[in-house]
UniProtKB/TrEMBL annotation:
Pfam families: Cupin_2 (PF07883), HTH_19 (PF12844). Residues 12-66 form the HTH cro/C1-type domain. The keyword DNA-binding applies. This is Transcriptional regulator, MerR family. The keyword DNA-binding applies. GO terms for molecular function: DNA binding; DNA-binding transcription factor activity. SUPFAM superfamilies: lambda repressor-like DNA-binding domains (SSF47413), RmlC-like cupins (SSF51182). It comes from hydrothermal vent metagenome. GO terms for cellular component: cytosol.
Amino acid sequence: MKASQPTLGALLRALRSRNSWTLKEMSEHSGIPISTLSKVEHDRLTLTYDKLLQLSQRLNIRMSELFAENDAGAEPPITARRSLGDLDHAVRVNTRNYDYYYLCTELRRKRMIPLITRIRSKSAEEFGELIHHPGEEFIYVVSGRIVVHSEFYDPVALEEGQSIYLDSTMGHAYVTGKDCEEAVVLAVCSSAEDGLMDSLLNLHGDDVEYETARA
């Protein structure tokens, strides 16, 4: 059986070994505390978006590498892979319209990107310009109600337990439905093109707030 793709911890260990750094030296180069790096290397802790961005910038690593996407070389067969996801270990990205929780980020070369999204905007006007990115996406309403705005269709309301599948290259936006302060949806994004994670991260732009990773 083939080994699964490296986790973020394995990636950081390999990077540290390649540079012949101790944990202390890695900490000095990255600005991440030694204790945090140790937990990440042993796959006991993930990092929030701001920490991954910090690693990317200070260590000159592509952001998508840290999100376990786009490994170089031929794609090996995928055999018996699995990942357990929960909000405590998700990579959290908070924006004006949404709070994103990226799940199962330790898996590399995923064909799908799963995430939980909290939706706060109450109208298309409040949301602003429609967003679009490569691929397709599936949205399932976990709680609350939402209205889906899209470039080529009239707005459609979805209640708890309902779902929608759409072309993500089409401009789209999700806002809360009538009398709903906040909605929670499960989203799964997929694309045949490389670089989907980079495209999703670029959507956030500068409109981002960060949370501290759990120790």
